């Protein structure tokens, strides 16, 4: 009797355990569906996460078993680092290697230049050339035109009743503030931090001079302003401007002039280096210096043009003041008039090419079309860079951009410089001109 009771209790325990295991198995099997009516995406994500976790557990178990083998295995499945499937993307060492090669090459060129030409840097000649004393008693018609324009503006402003408009504007604000105090509405929320300038209060000499010196080409009634001048930031920009000008003129005097005198020597690398230094000096150091002094808050003078994957992106990111002016006053008005985007872009490049040619040919008194043709050549080059980006990837598009900068712009600049020396001085004066 006792044995029978014991056996029956064992059977009951076994059946109960089997029932519990079956219920647990069913729950484990269908637990992805027993989640209280959650969305399908969440259920699927939970199932995938559980599957991935299970696969990782299996791989860990297999790795643990392999490590316990007597031959001490040292291999495991993995891809080479240069394979895309490896997921490796840290190539900082290769970038450092590239900079090191550039540094070694630059030092080699510097030593070669010093050995062949010696030290040619003469700051005294910089002052003579920059002040125009080497040209004798030359006139400056542009200054006369600016003075006449300023005189016209002053006479026009004096003929209007500007004082009355200013007094009326100020009295209106005083009347409003008086009314607010009387009505109990004068609090910190109702007081503007800075009074906004309204038309025609902006028609004064102060606003004109501020817009002339502000680092922008697009006029606004109320520019974004900073609250104070950061002294440490200002000192850094001043040092960068001073040191950058010295480096720029030294490189020009030490590298460029000997390269022009010996026209067969390649000059793309020194020209490109000077262009990069000039970019940093103008768009970062100088414009930030002016912006800090004028409390100009919008410091977006350039974007990451060095990562541009095509020529269009480069021209939209490397010179933001000019880009904003071209978009605001040329591109958008043409598109709003019903012209196509391609036509509007071509017009923008044409006007940009004209001004590039004007700003180079007139000061040099040498009429050439190298700058104009170089700018208009950006249109087909833009198409080529977009095709390279689409067919071969963004990296090749960026290579096209850098190739145009390294080979195109320095070559165009040196062609003008070479033609200026040959045209205005002649071969017999090149050696005398070389004392710069």
Automatic annotation (TrEMBL):
One of its GO terms (biological process) is triglyceride biosynthetic process. Its main location: endoplasmic reticulum. GO terms for cellular component: endoplasmic reticulum membrane. Pfam families: MBOAT. The keyword Transmembrane applies. Residues 9-20 have a biased composition (Basic and acidic residues). This is O-acyltransferase.
């Amino acid at each position: 009797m006792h044995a029978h009771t014991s056996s029956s209790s064992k059977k009951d325990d076994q059946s109960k355990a089997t029932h519990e295991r079956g219920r647990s198995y069913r729950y484990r099997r269908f637990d992805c569906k027993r989640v209280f009516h959650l969305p399908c995406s969440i259920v699927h994500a939970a199932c995938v996460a559980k599957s991935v976790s299970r696969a990782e557990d299996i791989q860990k178990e297999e790795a643990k078993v392999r490590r316990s083998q007597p031959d001490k295995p040292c291999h495991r499945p993995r891809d080479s680092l240069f394979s895309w499937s490896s997921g490796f993307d840290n190539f900082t060492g290769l970038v450092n290697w590239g900079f090191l090669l550039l540094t070694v090459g630059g030092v080699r060129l510097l030593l070669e230049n010093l050995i062949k030409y010696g030290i040619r840097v003469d700051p005294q000649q910089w002052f003579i050339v920059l002040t125009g004393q080497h040209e004798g008693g030359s006139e400056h018609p542009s200054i006369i035109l600016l003075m006449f324009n300023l005189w016209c503006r002053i006479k026009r402003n004096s003929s209007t009743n500007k004082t009355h408009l200013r007094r009326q504007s100020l009295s209106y604000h005083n009347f409003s503030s008086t009314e607010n105090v009387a009505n109990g509405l004068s609090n910190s929320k109702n007081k503007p931090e800075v009074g906004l300038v309204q038309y025609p209060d902006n028609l004064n000499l102060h606003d004109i001079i501020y817009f002339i010196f502000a680092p922008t080409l697009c006029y606004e009634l109320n520019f974004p302003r900073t609250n104070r001048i950061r002294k440490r930031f200002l000192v850094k920009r001043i040092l960068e401007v001073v040191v950058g000008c010295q480096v720029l003129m030294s490189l020009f005097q030490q590298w460029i002039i000997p390269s022009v005198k010996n026209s067969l020597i390649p000059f793309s690398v020194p020209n490109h280096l000077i262009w990069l230094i000039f970019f940093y000096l103008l768009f970062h150091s100088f414009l930030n210096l002016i912006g800090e002094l004028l409390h100009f808050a919008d410091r977006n003078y350039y974007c990451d043009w060095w990562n541009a994957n095509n020529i269009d992106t480069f021209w939209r990111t490397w010179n933001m003041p000019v880009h904003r002016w071209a978009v605001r006053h040329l591109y958008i008005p043409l598109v709003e008039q019903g012209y196509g985007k391609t036509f509007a872009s071509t017009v923008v490049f044409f006007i940009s090419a004209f001004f590039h040619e004007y700003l180079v040919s007139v000061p040099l008194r040498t009429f050439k079309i190298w700058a104009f043709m170089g700018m208009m050549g950006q249109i087909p080059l833009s198409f080529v860079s977009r095709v390279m980006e689409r067919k071969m990837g963004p990296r090749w598009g960026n290579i096209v951009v850098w190739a145009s900068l390294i080979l195109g712009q320095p070559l165009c600049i040196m062609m003008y410089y070479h033609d200026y020396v040959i045209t205005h001085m002649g071969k017999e004066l090149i050696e005398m001109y070389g004392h710069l």
